[in-house]
Write a structure and sequence with these properties.
two-stranded parallel sheet, alpha+beta, 2 helices, single chain, 2 domains, two-stranded antiparallel sheet
Length: about 100
């Protein structure tokens, strides 16, 4: 497919940005038929989407089917609060020998 539009959206929270992305996709995306369409199906919509979430920790969203159960959810919440920040290498410190995990 050629000439797929590139759409850029930003918002304060994940939910706000996601909603803006869907609205922009609907309004500005390229519509086309696919091999999966049945007669009467609406056209599919495509684009390249760049989303920037300005404050991702403001309103974190957890999927209802979060894999791993409550223990993994607790670990995820701790990670959002910076629990594993000490794992990240300081790229401005030549003496820091940790792996460059970002």
């Amino acid at each position: 497919m050629k000439n797929i539009p590139v759409i850029t959206v930003s918002g304060k929270t994940l939910a706000e940005t996601y909603e803006a992305a869907l609205i922009n996709l609907y309004e500005k995306g390229t519509r086309f038929k696919t091999q999966y369409d049945k007669p009467g199906d609406p056209l599919s919509i495509d684009c390249t989407m760049n989303m920037t979430i300005e404050e991702p920790e403001t309103d974190p969203v957890i999927h209802m089917a979060f894999p791993g159960g409550i223990d993994d959810l607790k670990e995820y919440v701790l990670e959002l609060k910076g629990y594993k920040d000490h794992w990240v290498k300081n790229i401005n410190d030549e003496k820091d020998t940790r792996l460059g995990i970002h």
